[in-house]
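Hi support team,

I'm opening this ticket because the web form for multi-chain structure prediction keeps timing out on my end. I have pasted the exact lines I submitted so you can reproduce it. The total is 225 residues across two entries, so I didn't expect it to be a heavy job. Is there a limit I'm missing, or should I split the entries? Thanks in advance, R.K.
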Amino acid sequence: GAVVSQHPSWVICKSGTSVKIECRSLDFQATTMFWYRQFPKQSLMLMATSNEGSKATYEQGVEKDKFLINHASLTLSTLTVTSAHPEDSSFYICSARGGGDEQYFGPGTRLTVT
Amino acid sequence: QQQVKQSPQSLIVQKGGIPIINCAYENTAFDYFPWYQQFPGKGPALLIAIRPDVSEKKEGRFTISFNKSAKQFSLHIMDSQPGDSATYFCAASGYDYKLSFGAGTTVTVRA
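Hello R.K., no limit was hit. The queue was backed up. Here is the completed structure from your submission:
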Protein backbone atom coordinates (compact mmCIF):
# COMPACT_ATOMS: atom_id res chain seq x y z
CA GLY A 1 0.00 0.00 0.00
CA ALA A 2 0.84 3.73 0.07
CA VAL A 3 1.92 4.04 -3.53
CA VAL A 4 2.48 7.41 -5.14
CA SER A 5 3.06 7.79 -8.85
CA GLN A 6 4.40 10.66 -10.93
CA HIS A 7 4.14 11.34 -14.60
CA PRO A 8 6.20 11.88 -16.61
CA SER A 9 9.32 10.30 -15.14
CA TRP A 10 11.49 12.56 -17.26
CA VAL A 11 10.87 15.44 -19.62
CA ILE A 12 12.98 17.67 -21.84
CA CYS A 13 11.54 21.00 -22.91
CA LYS A 14 12.72 24.15 -24.61
CA SER A 15 13.33 27.35 -22.71
CA GLY A 16 10.17 29.44 -22.44
CA THR A 17 7.71 26.56 -22.60
CA SER A 18 5.60 25.17 -19.78
CA VAL A 19 5.66 21.68 -18.34
CA LYS A 20 3.04 19.89 -16.24
CA ILE A 21 3.91 17.14 -13.78
CA GLU A 22 1.23 14.90 -12.26
CA CYS A 23 1.33 13.30 -8.84
CA ARG A 24 -1.19 10.61 -7.90
CA SER A 25 -1.81 8.63 -4.75
CA LEU A 26 -2.85 5.24 -6.10
CA ASP A 27 -4.22 3.40 -3.09
CA PHE A 28 -5.10 6.04 -0.53
CA GLN A 29 -6.69 9.45 -0.34
CA ALA A 30 -4.11 12.18 0.20
CA THR A 31 -5.12 14.80 2.72
CA THR A 32 -2.08 16.81 1.78
CA MET A 33 0.43 16.70 -1.04
CA PHE A 34 3.85 18.28 -1.03
CA TRP A 35 6.20 19.25 -3.82
CA TYR A 36 9.97 19.11 -3.45
CA ARG A 37 12.92 19.98 -5.59
CA GLN A 38 16.25 18.16 -5.42
CA PHE A 39 19.48 19.19 -7.12
CA PRO A 40 22.22 16.59 -7.75
CA LYS A 41 23.82 15.29 -4.58
CA GLN A 42 21.72 17.62 -2.44
CA SER A 43 18.86 17.23 -0.05
CA LEU A 44 15.19 17.73 -0.73
CA MET A 45 13.85 21.26 -0.50
CA LEU A 46 10.15 21.78 0.12
CA MET A 47 8.58 24.03 -2.50
CA ALA A 48 4.91 24.03 -1.60
CA THR A 49 2.10 22.34 0.27
CA SER A 50 -1.29 21.67 -1.26
CA ASN A 51 -4.58 20.53 0.18
CA GLU A 52 -7.45 19.34 -1.94
CA GLY A 53 -9.72 22.16 -2.99
CA SER A 54 -7.63 24.98 -1.56
CA LYS A 55 -4.80 27.15 -2.75
CA ALA A 56 -1.27 25.88 -2.33
CA THR A 57 1.03 27.51 0.18
CA TYR A 58 4.53 28.19 -1.03
CA GLU A 59 7.80 28.22 0.88
CA GLN A 60 9.78 31.40 1.09
CA GLY A 61 11.66 32.11 -2.11
CA VAL A 62 9.48 29.93 -4.34
CA GLU A 63 7.73 31.90 -7.08
CA LYS A 64 4.06 30.93 -7.01
CA ASP A 65 3.44 32.35 -10.49
CA LYS A 66 6.21 30.21 -11.89
CA PHE A 67 5.33 26.98 -10.12
CA LEU A 68 1.57 26.56 -10.38
CA ILE A 69 0.08 23.87 -8.20
CA ASN A 70 -3.41 22.45 -8.54
CA HIS A 71 -4.81 19.87 -6.14
CA ALA A 72 -7.93 18.87 -8.01
CA SER A 73 -8.89 15.80 -6.02
CA LEU A 74 -7.84 13.72 -3.04
CA THR A 75 -5.64 11.62 -5.31
CA LEU A 76 -4.21 14.09 -7.81
CA SER A 77 -1.98 17.14 -7.63
CA THR A 78 -0.23 18.82 -10.53
CA LEU A 79 2.80 21.08 -10.71
CA THR A 80 3.17 23.29 -13.77
CA VAL A 81 6.51 24.93 -14.37
CA THR A 82 5.67 27.98 -16.46
CA SER A 83 8.10 29.66 -18.87
CA ALA A 84 10.79 27.19 -17.90
CA HIS A 85 14.44 28.19 -18.06
CA PRO A 86 17.62 26.11 -17.80
CA GLU A 87 17.97 27.00 -14.10
CA ASP A 88 14.64 25.23 -13.49
CA SER A 89 16.23 21.95 -14.53
CA SER A 90 16.02 19.69 -11.51
CA PHE A 91 14.50 16.56 -9.99
CA TYR A 92 10.95 17.29 -8.85
CA ILE A 93 9.41 14.93 -6.32
CA CYS A 94 5.96 14.91 -4.79
CA SER A 95 4.82 13.29 -1.58
CA ALA A 96 1.39 12.50 -0.24
CA ARG A 97 0.05 12.22 3.28
CA GLY A 98 -3.08 10.34 4.25
CA GLY A 99 -4.54 10.74 7.71
CA GLY A 100 -1.34 10.22 9.68
CA ASP A 101 2.16 11.64 9.85
CA GLU A 102 3.66 9.39 7.18
CA GLN A 103 4.55 10.94 3.83
CA TYR A 104 5.03 8.69 0.85
CA PHE A 105 7.08 9.93 -2.05
CA GLY A 106 6.64 9.52 -5.75
CA PRO A 107 9.48 8.29 -7.99
CA GLY A 108 10.34 11.81 -9.12
CA THR A 109 10.38 13.67 -12.43
CA ARG A 110 13.64 14.70 -14.05
CA LEU A 111 13.15 18.03 -15.85
CA THR A 112 15.74 19.26 -18.31
CA VAL A 113 15.25 22.66 -19.92
CA THR A 114 17.34 23.33 -23.01
CA GLN B 1 19.04 27.67 7.76
CA GLN B 2 19.01 23.92 7.98
CA GLN B 3 16.78 22.82 10.83
CA VAL B 4 18.10 19.28 10.93
CA LYS B 5 21.84 18.64 10.91
CA GLN B 6 22.99 15.25 9.67
CA SER B 7 26.38 13.54 9.83
CA PRO B 8 28.50 12.06 8.44
CA GLN B 9 28.22 13.13 4.82
CA SER B 10 29.35 9.68 3.71
CA LEU B 11 30.57 6.44 5.16
CA ILE B 12 31.86 3.11 3.98
CA VAL B 13 31.43 -0.17 5.84
CA GLN B 14 32.10 -3.81 5.14
CA LYS B 15 29.25 -6.23 4.65
CA GLY B 16 27.83 -7.15 8.03
CA GLY B 17 28.97 -3.88 9.61
CA ILE B 18 26.69 -1.36 11.31
CA PRO B 19 26.56 2.07 9.67
CA ILE B 20 25.42 4.73 12.13
CA ILE B 21 24.00 8.05 10.97
CA ASN B 22 23.37 10.88 13.38
CA CYS B 23 20.97 13.81 13.28
CA ALA B 24 20.35 16.77 15.54
CA TYR B 25 17.55 19.30 15.63
CA GLU B 26 16.82 22.58 17.39
CA ASN B 27 13.09 23.06 16.97
CA THR B 28 11.40 21.54 20.02
CA ALA B 29 8.06 21.69 18.19
CA PHE B 30 9.16 18.80 16.00
CA ASP B 31 7.31 15.65 17.03
CA TYR B 32 7.81 13.20 14.18
CA PHE B 33 11.18 11.94 12.98
CA PRO B 34 11.31 9.70 9.89
CA TRP B 35 14.23 8.24 7.99
CA TYR B 36 14.20 7.85 4.22
CA GLN B 37 16.33 5.77 1.87
CA GLN B 38 16.98 7.03 -1.63
CA PHE B 39 18.60 5.28 -4.57
CA PRO B 40 20.01 7.32 -7.49
CA GLY B 41 17.26 8.65 -9.75
CA LYS B 42 14.48 7.45 -7.46
CA GLY B 43 12.20 9.05 -4.92
CA PRO B 44 12.87 8.60 -1.19
CA ALA B 45 11.32 5.57 0.49
CA LEU B 46 10.13 5.72 4.09
CA LEU B 47 12.20 3.32 6.21
CA ILE B 48 11.22 3.89 9.80
CA ALA B 49 9.97 6.73 11.97
CA ILE B 50 9.82 7.61 15.65
CA ARG B 51 8.07 9.99 17.99
CA PRO B 52 9.74 11.70 20.99
CA ASP B 53 7.93 9.58 23.58
CA VAL B 54 9.93 6.52 22.52
CA SER B 55 13.71 6.14 22.93
CA GLU B 56 14.22 3.32 20.48
CA LYS B 57 12.38 1.65 17.64
CA LYS B 58 13.34 -1.36 15.54
CA GLU B 59 11.98 -2.46 12.20
CA GLY B 60 13.82 -5.34 10.63
CA ARG B 61 17.51 -4.42 10.40
CA PHE B 62 16.86 -0.71 10.97
CA THR B 63 16.92 0.84 14.44
CA ILE B 64 16.28 4.42 15.48
CA SER B 65 17.67 5.70 18.77
CA PHE B 66 16.15 8.91 20.07
CA ASN B 67 17.48 11.24 22.78
CA LYS B 68 14.90 13.89 23.49
CA SER B 69 16.96 15.86 26.02
CA ALA B 70 19.90 16.10 23.62
CA LYS B 71 17.61 16.65 20.63
CA GLN B 72 19.42 13.97 18.70
CA PHE B 73 18.43 10.81 16.91
CA SER B 74 20.31 8.22 14.95
CA LEU B 75 19.82 5.37 12.51
CA HIS B 76 21.63 2.04 12.84
CA ILE B 77 21.62 -0.47 9.99
CA MET B 78 22.29 -3.92 11.41
CA ASP B 79 24.05 -6.60 9.38
CA SER B 80 24.42 -4.22 6.44
CA GLN B 81 24.34 -5.63 2.93
CA PRO B 82 25.60 -4.25 -0.41
CA GLY B 83 21.96 -3.65 -1.35
CA ASP B 84 21.76 -1.13 1.50
CA SER B 85 24.17 1.15 -0.37
CA ALA B 86 22.11 4.32 -0.83
CA THR B 87 21.65 7.83 0.47
CA TYR B 88 19.85 8.12 3.77
CA PHE B 89 18.00 11.21 4.92
CA CYS B 90 16.72 12.02 8.36
CA ALA B 91 13.83 14.44 8.65
CA ALA B 92 11.59 16.08 11.20
CA SER B 93 8.15 17.62 11.18
CA GLY B 94 5.70 19.24 13.54
CA TYR B 95 2.04 20.20 13.58
CA ASP B 96 2.06 21.31 9.91
CA TYR B 97 3.52 17.99 8.66
CA LYS B 98 6.16 19.88 6.66
CA LEU B 99 9.32 17.79 6.56
CA SER B 100 12.69 19.40 7.17
CA PHE B 101 15.39 17.15 5.78
CA GLY B 102 18.97 16.61 6.80
CA ALA B 103 21.68 16.95 4.18
CA GLY B 104 21.88 13.21 3.58
CA THR B 105 24.45 10.48 4.15
CA THR B 106 25.77 8.31 1.36
CA VAL B 107 26.34 4.81 2.68
CA THR B 108 28.48 2.33 0.78
CA VAL B 109 28.52 -1.29 1.91
CA ARG B 110 31.42 -3.22 0.46
CA ALA B 111 30.99 -6.93 -0.23
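A quick check on our side: Chain A is about 0% helix and 55% strand. Let us know if the file doesn't open in your viewer.
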